[in-house]
Amino acid sequence: MENARIVAVLEEVADLLQLQEANPFRVRAYRNAARVLSEETTPLRKRVASGEDLTKLPSIGREMAAHVEELVETGELRLLDELGSEVPRSLVEVMALPGLGPKKAARLWKELGVESVEDLAAAVQAGTVAGLSGFGRKTELQLARAMTQHQRHRGRFKLVEADRMAAPLLEQLAVADGVRRVEIAGSFRRRRETVGDLDILVVAPRSEAVMDCLVSYPEVSEVRLAGDTRATVILEKGLQVDLRVVPARSYGAALIYFTGSKPHNIKLRQRALERGFHLSEYGLFEPEEEASVSTGEERDAQGSGRFVSGMTEKAVYRALGLPWIAPELREDRGEMAAAAEKRLPRPIELADLRGDLQMHSTWSDGKSSIEEMVTAAAARGYEYIAMTDHSPYLGVVGGLDAKRLRLQWQEIEAVEERHPEIRILRGQEVDILPDGSLDQTDDAMAELDLVVAAVHSQYDLAPAEQTRRILKALRHPAVHVLAHPTARKINQRPGMDFDLDAILDCAFEEGVAVELNALPSRLDLRDTHAMRARELGVKIVISTDAHHVRDLDAMRYGIDQARRAWLEPGDVLNTLPLSKLLENLRQ
Ligand code: DGT
Ligand code: CA
Ligand code: CA
Ligand code: ZN
């Protein structure tokens, strides 16, 4: 057991003792020991092995020395288990929340049965916390806020969440005094499915106003750093924002640098060096004298030598003999070579799409009627959509058996008469049952324009069995599209474990298309998988899986991922006009 782990155990003992309102001197003894040992550079296990007397270390008495020996020798501490049986260990996290502390945490536990942050979140929501004496409305609000942060802080934010937080902030910054340009770089600009933080670049001759604007933005909960040209703040929901003010002539170079990705930047800097340049966030520079040709080590931060370019991204790429590379492609997945050889893809755009091939209505678990969906889709300029309400297998979604499906067609017909501007394909999202068979009669499926097959159960079958299940469904002649192929949910559920290549190969052979599901919580197939599908020549559709008219807007997230997968309009079936689409669906 390493020192850091030993220190953590002693800290936890101190926390649990505090929760039990133990003697403060005893608590302090553990804290002091933890601090001393955390500064210790020799591994304690070595000291123990050589039989050293640990009590020679400051703040380490007999009891503490015995604990360390026990931890080193057994990997465990009985005292910790004992304490853990008296008070839940997960309460330590609750105690650390702002506004709480050992006393309040202990009361939450004893009086409301709160054992963890999750429990507390539920209690706050149920409104039971405000009822405890000493826990006013203010504490409750503070807790509610602390918990959103706590939960959000744990992972990366979904792109859609980052978008929601970024848009109003960007709007504010854009109108701050003297701001000439403002843009979000980083993974956000590359449209990764999740982002770690926001990297904002600003051009403003004087930076005070924009700095003030950021630190006084109402959603800022913490200012970590506020310098002249750099600031770091944390938003209420836990998202970190880094802002940098850069000189106008460096804007393009800075945008490249902070957009990343890091591996893309490294390749680009190498290319610059090969051509006798030096590239940094300040610009592209050329050594002034032959003698001072760069040795490859970092140069003066502002960039020394003759300034070659830096104002725009395009100019920097051009000076390196490259066309501009779309941010979504900057992941070091071959874009540099493709750019040099003039064979970059023309990434798909929202305007290339002519229809949306998966959506639900109130006939199953959707929240909008068929007519509402159709009207909203037509307003987006689509030429066609497919109504794909669920099949009955999952009771909760109110899916349609063959009989109700035929009733739905009557309504579709009526709506179609009122909306000649758009064609409504009769579809269904048919469940792939655990044995790989389909949850609809062959007769009904034969009459459908579009059968979208999908897994919504038993995500954890053994990989070989899962693969067999899906292959069997793909081989059913009625199936046109495999929807959300891995069934993952971002930050919630990993994708199913199966042989993706086997499934893509089979889809190719059978002429079944795979879906890139655009719901921001799904994005399934993910970028790298969709890229693989494209390589294997598999047809792809991008669909929103909308359950409400407003979900139709999710399409842009599907497009973001498609671009990251290098998809071009020609790779995606729903860029085709209706007649061509129907020809290209499996016959
Ligand atoms: P994230 O925030 O984890 O979603 O991912 P990024 O890509 O936004 O990464 P972040 O925020 O750490 O840095 C933003 C960009 O700045 C990154 O994509 C590339 C650039 N960058 C950051 N650190 C380095 C570095 O050490 N070397 C190079 N070449 N670039 C860096
Ligand atoms: Ca970032
Ligand atoms: Ca950052
Ligand atoms: Zn589904």
Describe this structure in words.
With 587 residues, the protein is α/β, with parallel strands linked by helices. It folds into four domains: 3-152, DNA polymerase beta, N-terminal domain-like (DNA polymerase, domain 1, Orthogonal Bundle); 157-246, Beta Polymerase, domain 2 (2-Layer Sandwich), CATH 3.30.460; 252-340, Beta Polymerase, domain 3 (2-Layer Sandwich), CATH 3.30.210; 350-586, TIM Barrel (Alpha-Beta Barrel), CATH 3.20.20.140. It has 24 helices and 17 strands. The strands form four sheets. A seven-stranded parallel sheet has the order 11-12-13-14-15-16-17, with helices on one face. It has a five-stranded mixed sheet with strand order 2-4-7-6-5, sandwiched between helices. Helix 1 runs parallel beside helix 5 and helix 20 (463-475) runs parallel beside helix 21. The protein is globular and about 85 Å long. Bound molecules: 2'-deoxyguanosine-5'-triphosphate, calcium ion (2 copies) and zinc ion. Zinc ion binds at residues 429, 454, 456, 483-484, 545.
Q: Going across the major beta sheet, what is the strand order? A: 11-12-13-14-15-16-17
Largest sheet: 7 strands, parallel
Write down the overall mean pLDDT.
92
In terms of structural class, how would the helical and strand content be classed? Answer: alpha/beta
CATH topology of the largest domain: TIM Barrel
Tell me, briefly, the overall form.
globular
Helix content: 40-55%
Whole-number count of domains: 4
Low-confidence stretches: 291-301
Quick one: CATH superfamily of the largest domain? Metal-dependent hydrolases
Question: Ions, cofactors, ligands: which are bound?
Answer: 2'-deoxyguanosine-5'-triphosphate, calcium ion, zinc ion
**Per CATH, which architecture of the largest domain?**
Alpha-Beta Barrel
Number of separate strands: 17
